[in-house]
Design brief:
The chain is of the alpha/beta class and 508 residues long. Helix content is 49%, strand content 16%. Residues 269-390 form the CdaR GGDEF-like domain.
Length: 508
């Protein structure tokens, strides 16, 4: 808290200064006096303070009165209160330039009688300042106790805001760091900024967590003290809220980990716990797993979280974003297929259709999406999302969103291969192509895979491989020469496609 002071106007009413005269700078008589000092040396630059009343006889600069205008300028720069001078003994006349500068800066120059000792002036002024400070300190403690009592008695942040608004006789509102209004008083206050609006940051653990706005043109010392105490109390309230949110986030995160891990929790336990933590058991859930080697992942998570929030609001559901190590898990809610018939538009909702165009703008970030399921079976969707991500990456598929529905048959192929020895058959069909690629630095196998995947389209294959279609044609011709394969034969195409998929899924 800044030291309290008294105005020059109040100061000049003291008996000890009844014979003092203001000879210039009268427009600055509302300046606050917070300190008193005596000038003994000519160079006072760097020692001057805001609110300082400087007493001097000008003895130290008596041989160079031209330094007086410079002294006034330095006082003005320091936002000092005034210059009180005894000119008769060493100066006699004061320079005109000094008086003009005093008027320009609205910095009062006070002429003191010779017969008043400095000690009398400093004692009288400091007594007034100390009394004022003591009074403000007592009032500050009263305000702090009043506001903290409201918090300790759990009367709510609205009661605190109402008291602060009453003390300041003005409208106030508190916003969080995103700009959302937390509380306002009066309750119908329009939180719009005007030329009179002032604001102060509210910090918690040295981090700005909100701002206090006050609709008032000017505040006196007592009102500024009220603002400081209000900031302390609002900081305590925001700290309490932050702690509560972090605790809830931790509990929610543990619950999500339990769901994803497939722990043997009863259906009823999941329903009950989920309802407390924002997981509606009456809607469908699907899991998306995000992987990234991009430096933009933090920005991506902010953007996708906002997208999910907006889309969930439209559906009147609540989705969640959860961090798990270096991955992010999206828990996406949508209306169940047996939802209220009045809201049939929700039945066709597909998160894949929302996320796919969004993901096109993010390089180096991939997303695997599991199927829809109930809350208590969410582990299944999570495993599907992980498989979709793994298989999609291995197959070098171009989309950045891999859905389990698209790769389910490939997942079944992997499972089936555990019980059937496919290696010899695959080696017989495509082993020579693999060997040719290794020896010649070619990509015949990937080319054949994409060629078969696109129904034999040279153009689409070229797009997938980022090469010219003539290069694709050359590779296909080379494959035909090496394999003696008829790519117009549907059965042969199926056999080679099956073998290449098996190879790509099984290779390290």
């Amino acid at each position: 808290m800044n030291p309290a002071g008294i105005t020059l106007s109040e100061l000049l009413r003291l008996p000890v200064l009844k014979e003092a005269k203001v000879i210039s700078g009268e427009k600055g008589l509302n300046r606050m006096v917070k300190f008193v000092d005596i000038m003994e040396v000519p160079d006072v630059q760097g020692w001057l303070r805001e609110g300082e009343l400087l007493l001097t006889t000008a003895y130290s600069i008596r041989h160079d009165p031209t330094l007086l205008p410079k002294l006034v300028e330095e006082l003005a720069k320091a936002n000092a209160a005034a210059l009180a001078i005894k000119p008769e003994r060493f100066l006699h006349d004061m320079p005109i330039e000094m008086l003009q500068m005093s008027n320009n800066y609205h910095l009062p120059i006070i002429q003191l009688p010779n017969n008043i000792p400095y000690m009398d002036i400093t004692n009288a002024v400091m007594e007034q300042i100390i009394d004022k400070q003591g009074s403000l300190l007592r009032r500050s403690e009263e305000i702090y106790k009043r506001l903290t009592t409201l918090v300790l008695e759990n009367q709510g942040i609205q009661a605190v805001a109402d008291n602060v608004a009453g003390l300041l006789k003005s409208s106030i509102w508190l916003v969080d760091k995103t700009g959302e209004t937390i509380v306002q008083s009066p309750s119908d206050t329009a939180d719009k900024l005007s030329s009179h609006t002032k604001f102060w940051n509210i910090t918690v653990d040295k981090q700005i967590e909100g701002r206090l706005f006050i609709e008032k043109e000017a505040l006196d010392e007592l009102e500024l003290i009220c603002v400081e105490q209000a900031r302390l109390v609002f900081s305590l309230e925001l700290m309490r809220r932050k702690t509560a949110l972090e605790t809830e986030k931790k509990i929610r995160g543990d619950f999500i980990d339990e769901l994803l891990s497939g722990l043997p929790l009863s259906k009823q336990v999941i329903i009950n716990k989920g309802s407390q933590l924002g997981f509606n058991s009456e809607v469908d859930w699907e899991i998306a797993v995000v992987e990234s080697d991009s430096e933009s992942i933090s920005l991506f998570i902010d953007k996708v979280t906002n997208l999910i929030h907006l889309e969930s609001q439209k559906l009147r559901v609540k989705s969640h974003v959860h961090r798990q190590g270096d991955k992010y898990i999206l828990l996406l809610a949508s209306k169940s297929l047996d939802a209220d018939p009045k809201h049939q538009s929700n039945l066709s909702f597909c998160w894949n259709e929302i996320l796919t165009p969004f993901m096109n703008d993010w390089k180096g970030i991939r997303l695997g999406l599991g199927g829809k399921t109930q809350l208590w079976n969410i582990n299944r969707s999570y495993l599907e999302a992980k498989k979709a991500l793994m298989i999609g990456a291995r197959m070098n598929l171009n989309p950045r969103v891999f859905t389990y529905e698209e790769i389910e048959i490939l997942d079944l192929l992997i499972d089936a291969s555990e019980y059937v020895d496919m290696d010899a058959y695959v080696e017989k069909r495509i082993g020579h192509l693999y060997k040719y690629d290794q020896e010649n630095g070619m990509d015949l196998l990937p080319t054949l895979y994409h060629y078969l995947s696109t129904g034999g389209s040279l153009i689409e294959t070229a797009k997938r491989l980022f090469i010219h279609r003539n290069s694709v044609k050359y590779r296909i011709d080379r494959i035909k020469q090496l394999s003696d394969i008829d790519l117009d034969n549907h059965q042969k195409r199926f056999e080679y496609y099956y073998c290449i998929v098996y190879y790509l899924l099984k290779k390290d």
